[in-house]
Design a protein that fits this description.
Helix 10 links the parallel strand 10 and strand 11. By secondary structure, this protein is of the alpha/beta class. The longest helix is centred in the N-terminal third of the chain and has 17 residues. Helix 1 runs parallel beside helix 5, helix 1 runs parallel beside helix 10 and helix 7 crosses helix 12. The chain has twelve helices and twelve strands.
């Protein structure tokens, strides 16, 4: 990469993936501090880019996740020609993700092989999963030439927060920090197979509240039902210390509020990766997915999973209907992990 490089990254559509993509952005800027880095992504993940100092500009993808819309992609690509991008890095492995840089005529278009898109890329790479077992490694490797080994340590994501935004968010929701705060993130956009049972979250919450904690529940509007199920199992004397923020915050507000919590307990979700990128301790609960592919990238982490024979299956819903990979993960294990991380 040269100092004059004008780079466009086609970003992922999932929140957790975009957080991990910051490691790529860091690698790009470390190699070429004077380059211009623009990221194209959807409304869902674009607020994250404002908290990543490596990103110089963000472009609205104008497309929902999964939409093909060949004509729209051609039109968007043609409109980008005036920006004179010198290089494009395409993180999603789909055919459609490579169309916009192709139509934009960007001379160098880099990505992993997938979905018959070889003709759309000028540097189409065959993935060695043994060499790059982690998603973050696969992202970061695209900052380097195909014959260059990436550094042994890949920089971890780190989202920026400032006191002014944090104080505004606290005031907006009438929150205080008189007690230690545990953030719990019970949702998972991927599917309900990734969700630790609501009664387990409630047991964890009741136990910590008795110890002097308060509980903040984070999530999207899609997580309202599991949040309500958790609240239904909170003891009456504890309910005043359990705050449901699911569906009430913007993604930016969630980042600000999570930055002041003492610890986060989360399913394998985008919020888990946000918590890790904020530098706090994280207890990650893994069911059908694997911590060997998308672990939270933080120094203080406890990753919990069961050892049943059918995991990880990477299914959105449990093929057998029992969800044992998470139902058999007991609240006591999570409480112990919280104590261990906080004591550190």
């Amino acid at each position: 990469m040269a100092a004059s490089d004008n780079i466009l990254v086609i970003g992922p559509s999932w929140v957790g993936d975009m957080v991990m993509a910051q490691s790529l952005f860091k690698c790009i800027k470390e190699k070429s501090p004077s380059c211009t880095l623009t990221v194209m992504t959807s409304d869902r993940t674009r607020p994250l880019l404002a908290r990543m100092p490596e990103v110089d500009a963000a472009i609205d993808a104008q497309l929902d996740h999964g939409e093909l819309k060949l004509g729209t992609r051609r039109r968007i690509g043609k409109s980008l020609k005036t920006y004179h991008y010198t290089k494009a890095i395409i993180l999603p492995n789909s055919f459609k993700a490579a169309l916009i840089p192709f139509h934009a005529g960007i001379p160098s278009r880099i990505g992993w092989r997938g979905e018959w898109r070889v003709p759309l890329l000028t540097d189409c790479r065959r993935l060695d999963k043994n060499k790059f077992p982690l998603m973050v490694q696969r992202f970061a490797a695209l900052a380097f030439t195909r014959d260059t080994n990436p550094p042994g340590f890949i920089p971890h994501p780190k989202l920026q927060v400032d006191a002014v935004h944090v104080n505004h968010a606290l005031a907006d929701f009438g929150l205080n920090m008189h007690r230690r705060i545990v953030a719990i993130c019970p949702g998972a956009e991927f599917g309900d197979a990734k969700q630790w049972p609501a009664e387990h979250f409630a047991a964890l919450s009741n136990s910590l509240i008795v110890e002097g904690w308060q509980v903040w529940i984070f999530g999207s509007p899609n997580d309202a039902s599991i949040a309500e199920a958790i609240l239904a199992d909170i003891n009456n004397e504890n309910i005043k210390y359990c705050i449901n923020l699911s569906g009430r915050t913007t993604l930016t507000q969630a980042i600000d509020l999570m930055s002041v919590t003492s610890i986060t307990v989360s399913n394998d979700s985008g919020l888990m990766h946000i918590a890790a990128a904020l530098g706090g301790p994280v207890v990650g609960l893994f069911g059908p997915t694997s911590s060997g592919f998308t672990p939270p990238l933080a120094k203080r982490v406890e990753l919990l999973a069961t050892n049943i024979e059918c995991r990880p299956c990477f299914k959105r819903t449990c093929p057998y209907g029992h969800r044992r990979c998470l139902t058999e993960l007991e609240p006591s294990q999570t409480i112990t992990a919280v104590h261990r991380l906080v004591d550190e």
